[in-house]
Amino acid sequence: MAAEPWGWGPAALALLLVLLLGGARCLRRRYAAAGARAALRERAGTAAAEARAGGVRALLVTAHPDDEAMFFAPTVLGLGRDGARPAVLCCSPGNYYSQGEIRKKELEQSCFLLGIPASDVTVIDHRDLPDNPAAEWDTRLLAAFVLKHIEANNINLVITFDAGGVSGHANHISLYTALRYLHSERKLPEGCRVLVLESVNLFRKYISILDILLSCLLPRDALFVLTEEETEQARRAMRCHHSQLLWFRHLYMLFSRYMMINSLRLL
After folding, report:
1. CA distances from 122 to 39, 49, 208 (A)
2. Cα gap 81→229, rounded to integer Å
3. Tens-digit pLDDT profile for residues 76-90
4. Cα gap 39→26, rounded to integer Å
5. Of 4, 10, 19, 106, which is the most buried if we count CB atoms within 10 A?
6. pLDDT of residue 115
7. Mean pLDDT within 203-208
8. 249: left (phi over 0), alpha (psi -120 to 50) or beta
9. How far apart are CA 35 and CA 33, in angstroms?
10. Which of 110, 184, 192 is nearest to 159 (CA)?
11. Is there a contact between 194 and 179 (Cβ–Cβ < 8 Å)?
């Protein structure tokens, strides 16, 4: 008897999904075990060597409290595996709904769970750097704040958003513009590198660990992948941001690749 035309469709899809998940888990174990030492490719080789020696002085530059957990947890935890202790410079208190003071405390709690003490967390509160998805921050003002922090703390690796800002938020994109300005104008200290977090399309953003298959194949200068235990650590950090945990953020924590995978490029 001939098979029904739809008979093999669901079975084939199920088998494909099983194979993809199996491959993703294998790659996850491989890259998570390799840590930061294997994450930085040849162009960032010096930074990788410094990581092995504990010499990376990394600065994560974010726009709002919760960016560090929502987008950058894999990078923070990945660098931490090799002894680096990234500091955080958050360029606004996240005061869009007048919750700035609450969100500062949430940021410190989240960073603590990610291995960053409160002494390494700095929040800029400036009227010309408002938390507003429609506000493009002044490039030179922002660059001056960031450069001052880099120089004062002997930073040699800066991590921030790319030109897409992951979510398209204007404040996120302003950070990229400011770092690109510092880089292109050669204002950064000698040897200071800048890694920017890759913005991916909506499909890739929400296919969870399956995105590691694409992340490994596509060009990048750094790739950080979390173990299952580390991913839960990242989610606990995100849950510290109680004021931001609307229903869709819980879905984000479950399905977003940014909770377990960061692919980055060097400026």
Report:
1. 26, 27, 30
2. 13
3. 999 988 788 899 999
4. 16
5. 106
6. 96
7. 95
8. alpha
9. 5
10. 192
11. yes
Tokens for 161?
């958003």
Quote the Cα angle for 89-94-96, to 5°.
155
3-state secondary structure the chain: CCCCCCCHHHHHHHHHHHHHHHHHHHHHHHHHHHCHHHHECHHHHHHHHHHHCCCCCEEEEECCCCHHHHCCHHHHHHHHHCCCCCEEEECCCCCCCCCHHHHHHHHHHHHHHCCCCHHHEEECCCCCCCCCCCCCCCHHHHHHHHHHHHHHCCCCEEEEECCCCCCCCHHHHHHHHHHHHHHHCCCCCCCCEEEEECCCCHHHHCCHHHHHHHHHHCCCCEEEECCHHHHHHHHHHHHCCHHHCCHHHHHHHHHCHHHCEEEEEEC
The whole-number average pLDDT for the span 107-125 is 97
How many of the other CB atoms lie within 10 Å of CB of 227?
A: 16
Q: 28 pLDDT exceeds 70?
A: no
User: 256 burial class (0-12, 13-18, 19+ CB within 10 angstroms)?
Assistant: buried
Q: Which residue has the tokens 């499909």?
A: 203
**CA-to-CA distance for 172 and 164, rounded, in angstroms?**
8
Q: How far apart, in whole angstroms, are the C-alpha atoms of residue 212 and residue 218?
A: 10
Entry pTM: 0.88
Please provide the size of the chain in residues.
Answer: 267
- The 10s digit of each residue's pLDDT in 128-154 is 999 999 999 999 999 999 999 999 999
C-alpha span between 98 and 96 (Å, rounded):
6
Would you state the structure tokens that stand for residue 186, as one six-digit string?
Answer: 């050669």
User: Residue 85 and residue 56: Cα distance in Å, rounded?
Assistant: 8
